[in-house]
Amino acid sequence: MTLTLNKRVWLLAERLYIHAYNADKFLKLLALNDIDYDGANYSDFDTTKGLYTFMSEDDYTFASFMEIVPSYKYLHLLQEIVFDENVKKTAKDNWNYYGEFIRNWYPELIDLLKLAGIQVDNGARQLTFPEIEYPTDKKDFLPDGFGDTFLDYIRKEINECYKMVGICR
Predict the structure, then answer these.
(1) What is the Cα 119 distance to its own chain's centre?
(2) Judgement on whether residues 115 and 145 belong to the same structural domain of the protein
(3) Do 20 and 102 belong to one domain?
(4) Structural domain that includes position 88
(5) What residues does 100 pair with on adjacent strands?
(6) 114 and 60 assigned to the same domain
């Protein structure tokens, strides 16, 4: 089963991290996770009005961008945002942007992740997405791993497709 997230997840993750830190630090976090996002909509954040306007209007530019990013990068990025102490503190923040309270963003993000089937383990500070196992007697098409996250993800997808062909026959 493929990990599919609601666009609101990315809107909230972006807002939470920018509110807790700033737009530059958010872009650096993306770069550390091998996500090349230009962040063109952050240009006027040097003024309070620019930040306030951004947080007050639903801008799904980043969420739309994340649809073209491979899903194997999702959990690691979200894990860094969800378990960040400054982001967690926003759940007690009484500030609001035009009536949308910041304290509601973090719990809503957690709820949306759980709704998508992601398990949130606060003790281990880890997000996991359990894969659905299909019963089949077929062995893997590609049995051995490559030792590379990207190639192993592709290998997993190939093996799932191979097994699904066996179920359909």
Answers:
(1) 13
(2) no
(3) yes
(4) 7-122
(5) 97
(6) yes
Report d(CA 20, CA 58) in Å as an integer.
18
3-state secondary structure of 134: coil
Name the pTM for this structure.
0.75
| Residue found by looking up tokens 């909509």 in the block | 41
Cβ atoms of 16 and 103 within 8 Å: the answer is: no
Q: Helix (H) and strand (E) counts for the chain?
A: 8, 4
Report for 54-58, 118-122, 152-156: range of highest mean pLDDT: 118-122
> Do 108 and 159 lie in a common domain?
no
State both tokens at 27: 């872009």
Q: CB–CB of 24/46 below 8 Å? A: no
Mean pLDDT of the chain: 85
2 in a domain, yes or no?
Answer: no
Residue 97 DSSP code: E
Is residue 66 domain-resident? yes
Same domain, 151 and 112: no
Q: Which residue has the tokens 């993000």?
A: 109
Best CA proximity match to 62, nearest among 91, 92, 23, 110? 23
d(CA 101, CA 91): 9
Please report the pLDDT score of residue 168 as a whole number: 46
